[in-house]
Amino acid sequence: MLLRQRLARAARLLLLAALASSWIACRSEEPPSAAPEKEGAETAEKKPAVDQKIANAMAAAARESAQPSAGAAGGVAPPPDGIMTEEAAAKELPVGAAATVVLGGEGASPRVKLGIDRIVPGAGPSGKLEISYRSGASVMPTIELELRGKISAAEGAASPEQAALVTRFAVSKARPAGQQPGRLPENARAEIAKLDGSSIDLLTSQKGALIASRHQLAGNNPELEPLVMGSAEALAGAFLAYPDVPVGVGAFWMVKSRETLNGASVLAYRMVRVTELTGETLKLSVSTRRYLLSETLPLAGFPPHRVRQFQSEGEGSVSVRVGAAHPELADIQDTFVALVSPNDRPTQAMPIQSEVKAKIAFAR
């Protein structure tokens, strides 16, 4: 079977047919829920509507560090269905605003400063990204992308000092990765090579805090788009916002950002913790929870519907050097599950699910 046919089948399974293939399995499971646990004893001055799992993790980290948790969120209950109204999201983070940081603890000495005060336009980070994408029971080929970065000022700013930045990652080479989930057809390399010339843009503040992301698919095979879209999501999750103060092992903070997931607008919360400091390199653990900002999903060819339940979680690790504007290494895993009711069958709940795994390595 041609690779395009397999990819088309994978895409259809994501959008339509996969609903039937995973329907029996999902009916035996409880629907995804973001119901809050009982609020802990520690509260915070700032109380974003973040999932209680992350709030409890921040509180636990604060107790371990024997420091008060200035950013442990536990005041506002998260939406139990995983869907946040735009009004609530705007109170958390206005549209067009850069990702924000709520510091929970500075960690132990020695402490170092992450990020830089101002990123200069010019050559950006370049390296490799390996990505795998699973939709329901279907798995797409694992691919490796060579990325070349370029940083420029975004249009529309009153002055260069106020301009947001666009980091464009151009795909200079796309090929199958060394390890595959199954045997690929003979023309796989030629089809995957059509991704050459695709691009991913990260719009950030001048300190590197994420504002938005977008991607552009090259070639004539739209069934490959999930791989480029997933790469954009992984890069957005690896380019973290950092506290303005030095941090050490045990430091932790919350990052709030507006992002897209499978084309849908979401509000993402990341609990970041410093787990290692070796020389001038810090290793960070990252836990993510996202909330959908609409009751529909932008799935091509999908009938009118309403999302009844939404759940998106992620885990990862990021390595970053002191004084660097971008991460050095990242390992990201994100999952997405939604229960959807077609408007003409409102009593039915059909599952949609996907998983993205990515490994990123940038040159120093």
Ends apart, CA distance between termini: 41 Å
Strand content: 35-45%
Mean pLDDT value: 82
The biggest sheet, with number of strands, parallel, antiparallel or mixed sense and barrel status, is: 14 strands, antiparallel
Considering DSSP H and I runs of 4 or more, what fraction of the residues is helical? 10-25%
Number of helices: 6
State the total count of DSSP E strands. Answer: 14
Helix/strand structural class? alpha+beta
Number of domains: 1
Low-confidence parts: 1-49, 64-76
What global shape is seen?
globular
Run of helices and strands: HHHHEEEEEEHEEHEEEEEE
What is Rg? 20 Å
What does this protein structure show overall?
It contains 6 helices and 14 strands. By secondary structure, the protein is α+β, with helices and mostly antiparallel strands. The protein has one domain (3-362). Strands 1, 2, 3, 4, 5, 6, 7, 8, 9, 10, 11, 12, 13 and 14 form a 14-stranded antiparallel sheet that branches. It starts with a helix and ends with a strand. Residues 1-49 and 64-76 have low confidence and may be disordered.
